[in-house]
């Protein structure tokens, strides 16, 4: 019968000089995060009133744990400090009360306050721990951008812009009425008009910048206004695909 394997080699008999110390098999089921955690555990376990603590019973239970921790060599200094505080409170409660002092402070008051605050924090921590946490209850997907094939969009060159403009001019000539008169047109005014059309929108089509029924002169000024906006980096012009529609996008919100 194989009782163990060491480095892949089967061991069929236990060594005669094998010795397992008793403390190696000791199992500790209760662990505490500090003396306040231990005190709160003892109060709840023995149904003690946290607002009217029986210091004799609490001190006895606490000292029993301290002695057990000493035997396991797991005792921290903060537990000894709390033991000294419990003994001090117990001793002060044994002293006779002065009749002339009406509002004598209960020696347990500060300890009770600390215990109630610790219990609130512990319950809040348990509620937070019950919430879903990343890397424990779910994973956050991460995708390396190098693995994603990003489509390479064509850049808008001057010839594309020229062809789009010439197409608009040809369409405008079909609807351009004959007018005789003097017009004073402002490029800045038309720049403002284009920016207003972009308000609340991600982008507009190139044709939307122009009013085909306003006449060729207005369209020329509008086109110059658009070029001025591009020069001042207030708008950018892009194209989704080859020979596709041209779009005008504001670089800032207005």
Give the spatial strand order of the biggest sheet. 3-5-4
Secondary-structure element series: EEHHHHHHEHEE
Largest sheet: 3 strands, antiparallel
- Overall geometric form: elongated
Number of strand elements: 5
Radius of gyration: 42 Å
Number of domains: 2
| H/I helix tally | 7
Mean pLDDT: 80
Distance between the termini: 84 Å
**Uncertain stretches of 5 or more adjacent residues:** none
The helix content is 40-55%
Structural class: mainly alpha
Q: State which percent range the strand residues make up.
A: 5-15%
List keywords for this structure.
three-stranded antiparallel β-sheet, 7 helices, elongated, 45% helix, mainly alpha, Arc Repressor Mutant, subunit A, 5 strands, 254 residues
Structure description:
The protein is mainly alpha-helical and 254 residues long. It folds into two domains: 119 residues, no CATH class; 93 residues, Orthogonal Bundle (Arc Repressor Mutant, subunit A), CATH 1.10.10.580. It contains seven helices and five strands; from the N terminus they run E-E-H-H-H-H-H-H-E-H-E-E. The strands form two sheets. The protein has a three-stranded antiparallel sheet. A two-stranded antiparallel ribbon has the order 1-2. Strand 1 and strand 2 form a beta hairpin. Helix 1 crosses helix 4, helix 2 packs antiparallel against helix 3 and helix 6 packs across helix 7. The relative contact order is 0.07.
